[in-house]
């Protein structure tokens, strides 16, 4: 359901599992297959210390025209890298699997960069274990968005078998110019969660303000949420934001000062 403050949340059940990804195909296909084998079509992967090959990514950029507020620069390519922090939303697009991934990674020369990973052009050099938060009762579906002129993930209800061992949660989408923390606090309250753990978030900020890291001066960013908590109306969020130059900013967000850029898709569970 949708409240009055431009955020949408759909109740779901969330089960966290460890999955093995096999090499020999593109990384997106490996993620889709592993999730499907576990019984899920939607949810969020946490990628940490994951070695990848055929690095391919975009950086945030302004759009050359009035139709959109932001766009992409790239694609840029490289060889091998290690994803230090990444989140991947998976869902559906016209019934087919779809992903959205933002991450920060370190290349072989030690440089740290971040941005929007094109996982369907990348591969795994070896089998790897990753954490997946699988959702039932709701799914992220790619739908047109008139305001941003993008087709983006939005949460919709889905009739799935009950996951009795799973935790109650919320698949959420937050729209532009809304503070992310305040939006998630409102959604938790709306759905009766006095406390909630933020498992994943993929989206963009209008800049980025941190308590313990340098702020992002450019208004165009790619961002991800690596963790956080909503507790009795107060929200603490740990995030990574990448500016158009590929500079990575990591830390705890300053409450009340981080407006969403184009969109933010989030997975929360009852804590």
Can you characterise this structure?
The protein is globular and about 45 Å long. It has 271 residues and is mainly beta. The protein has helices at residues 27-37, 180-190, and strands at residues 7-21, 43-47, 50-52, 56-61, 71-77, 81-93, 96-107, 112-117, 128-136, 138-145, 150-157, 167-174, 195-208, 216-220, 222-231, 234-242, 248-252, 260-270. The strands form two sheets. It has a 16-stranded antiparallel β-sheet that branches. Strands 10-11 form a two-stranded antiparallel sheet. The longest helix has 11 residues, at 27-37. It is built from two helices and 18 strands. The chain has two domains: 7-12 and 165-270, Hypothetical protein, similar to alpha- acetolactate decarboxylase, domain 2 (60s Ribosomal Protein L30, Chain: A, 2-Layer Sandwich), CATH 3.30.1330.80; 14-133, 60s Ribosomal Protein L30, Chain: A (2-Layer Sandwich).
The run of helices and strands is EHEEEEEEEEEEEHEEEEEE
- Overall spatial form: globular
The share of residues in helices is under 10%
Taken as a percent bin, the fraction of beta residues is over 45%
Radius of gyration: 17 Å
């Amino acid at each position: 359901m949708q409240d009055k403050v431009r955020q949408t949340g759909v109740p779901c059940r969330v089960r966290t599992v460890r999955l093995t990804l096999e090499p020999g195909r593109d990384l997106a296909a490996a993620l889709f297959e592993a999730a499907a084998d576990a019984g899920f079509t939607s949810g969020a992967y946490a990628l940490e210390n994951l070695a990848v090959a055929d690095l391919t990514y975009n950086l945030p950029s302004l759009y050359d025209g009035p139709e959109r507020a932001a766009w992409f620069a790239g694609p840029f390519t490289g060889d091998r890298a290690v994803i230090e922090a990444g989140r991947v939303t998976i869902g559906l697009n016209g019934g087919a699997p779809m992903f959205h991934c933002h991450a920060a990674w370190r290349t072989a020369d030690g440089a740290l960069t971040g941005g929007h990973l094109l996982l369907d052009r990348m591969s795994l050099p070896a089998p790897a274990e990753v954490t997946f938060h699988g959702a039932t009762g709701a799914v992220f579906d790619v739908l047109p968005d008139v305001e941003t002129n993008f087709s983006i993930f939005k949460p919709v209800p889905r009739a799935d078998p009950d996951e009795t061992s799973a935790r109650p949660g919320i698949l959420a989408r937050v729209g532009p110019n809304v503070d992310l923390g305040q939006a998630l606090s409102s959604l938790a309250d709306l759905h009766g969660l006095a406390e909630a753990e933020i498992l994943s978030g993929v989206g963009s900020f209008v800049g980025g303000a941190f308590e313990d890291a340098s702020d992002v001066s450019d208004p165009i960013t790619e961002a991800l949420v690596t963790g956080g908590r909503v507790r009795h109306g107060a929200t603490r969020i740990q995030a990574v934001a990448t500016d158009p130059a590929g500079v990575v900013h990591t830390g705890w967000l300053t409450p009340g000062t981080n407006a969403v850029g184009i969109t933010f898709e989030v997975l929360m569970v009852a804590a």
